[in-house]
Design brief:
This protein has 276 residues and is of the alpha/beta class. The protein is built from twelve helices and seven strands. It is globular and about 60 Å long. The structure holds S-adenosylmethionine.
């Protein structure tokens, strides 16, 4: 049990690649739920997901947008034969949207924007003005209304805020503190006592990154609860698919490392459809 705590799995390439492939399958959950001829990956990072979609649906128009130009360069370099367009210029996305609407064959006109693991970054790192701009881009501006918005991110219910199971806290102290003295105290100073279940759940989502602890423990994986998120979505977008789940990989790791069954959901996948 103790040996798995230091993420030794990362050193195992086959295991790591298999886990990455599984997470890719999870990330394209929206593909069979929408009727779109164009996809815009908002916060596409190095373009892995779009590269995967291009293989499965080579006929789709695919656009990757990311505010980090280094990510865009990396994405472009991945496959010189790819037709995916990567950009950090929002005006270019807007023009591609308009062009698609004007020229797409019948039945291919609809456009889906995808926000995968971006929401928590927007909430954690942007000031109010940048946040408002980003949400305008995702939920539609005067001249862009996405037909679908597919959202996937870490997210827990408000109901996760409750006293923790004291046995779970004791187990974490026993296993994690023994191996990494002082890190729990550091965690609790920033995120609150593990006796509060929200902090414990957040800890379970973070503890395996102990190799990058200084960076990771500061990151807020759960900046907004599910209920507040749903209340923030414009009413013109109707949820047509939803899955609130505990990441199977995380559930397994917490079980392996601590012998604890995670009972809270940690992730949300939802597809919204524009209804006029
Ligand atoms: C955690 S990564 C997720 C990458 C990928 N979508 C995935 O599911 O694995 C978040 C990405 O969103 C980008 N990002 C963060 N804030 C953004 C914003 N306001 N607009 C566009 N991209 C943003 C970051 O540069 C980063 O590449």
């Amino acid at each position: 049990m103790l040996n798995t705590l230091t993420s030794h799995h990362i050193a195992d390439n086959d295991w790591y690649n298999a886990e990455m492939a599984k997470s890719l399958i999870d990330k394209i959950f929206f593909l069979d739920k929408v009727d779109a001829g164009m996809f815009v990956d908002f916060g596409c990072a190095n373009g892995v997901m779009l590269g995967f979609i291009e293989k499965v649906f080579p006929g789709s128009k695919l656009v990757g947008f990311d505010t980090n130009p280094e990510m865009i360069e990396e994405a472009r370099a991945r496959d010189p034969n790819s037709k995916i367009i990567y950009t950090s210029e929002w005006d270019e996305v807007r023009e591609l949207f308009k062009d698609h609407k004007a020229t797409a064959p019948r039945g291919q006109e609809k456009v889906c924007v995808v926000s995968s693991s971006v929401g928590h970054e927007i909430e954690s790192y942007s000031d109010e003005e940048a946040k408002a701009l980003t949400y305008r881009r995702i939920w539609g501006e005067a001249d862009i209304e996405w037909d679908y918005v597919a959202w996937r991110d870490m997210m827990a219910s408000r109901a996760a805020s409750r006293p923790s199971d004291p046995i779970a806290v004791a187990r974490v102290q026993q296993i994690f503190e023994a191996k990494h003295p002082g890190l729990i105290a550091q965690w609790e100073q920033r995120w609150g006592h593990l006796g509060e279940n929200w902090s414990l759940l957040h800890f379970f989502m973070t503890y395996r990154y102990v190799a990058n602890w200084d960076r990771e423990y500061r990151e807020n994986y759960l900046p907004r609860n599910y209920e507040d998120f749903m209340a923030s979505v414009p009413k013109k977008y109707m949820p047509i698919y939803q899955d609130r789940f505990t990441l199977p990989f995380l559930r397994r790791r917490v079980q392996e490392d601590f012998g604890i069954s995670l009972s809270d959901t940690t992730h949300l996948k939802v597809v919204f459809e524009l209804r006029k």
